[in-house]
Amino acid sequence: MPKLTVEGVGEFEVPEGKRLVLALTDEAGVDQLHACGGNSRCTTCRVEFISGEPDRMTAAEKQTLQARDLTDARLSCQILCDHDMSVRAISRLEGSGRADAGHVPTEEMQPQPVEWVEK
């Protein structure tokens, strides 16, 4: 099982292939935002990688990050936990002014990754 380390929270074992957004909320108990329900339409599920950043990203993630001119963050809804990684959760419910974190993301990545592109 991959190890997920969340800065300031701890280290957790995560089921292989679990979406990072769900690992943050389910295993680590982080109040990670996911306003669009994990569909790569917003950027509320942003994380910064400390180590173990995947070297590929989905086309949906790339398009969303480029549209918002974000170069120093990744979308946790578009990353699968398939290796050890260490992240900083930078987009959390606490202090956001939102009533809730958003719609619960599905177990399967949305939109379905039909094309992978280099980061």
UniProtKB/TrEMBL annotation:
InterPro entries: 2Fe-2S_ferredoxin-like_sf, 2Fe-2S_ferredoxin-type, Beta-grasp_dom_sf. One of its GO terms (molecular function) is iron-sulfur cluster binding. Residues 96-119 are annotated as: Disordered. PROSITE patterns: 2FE2S_FER_2. Residues 2-93 form the 2Fe-2S ferredoxin-type domain. This is 2Fe-2S ferredoxin-5. The gene is fdx5.
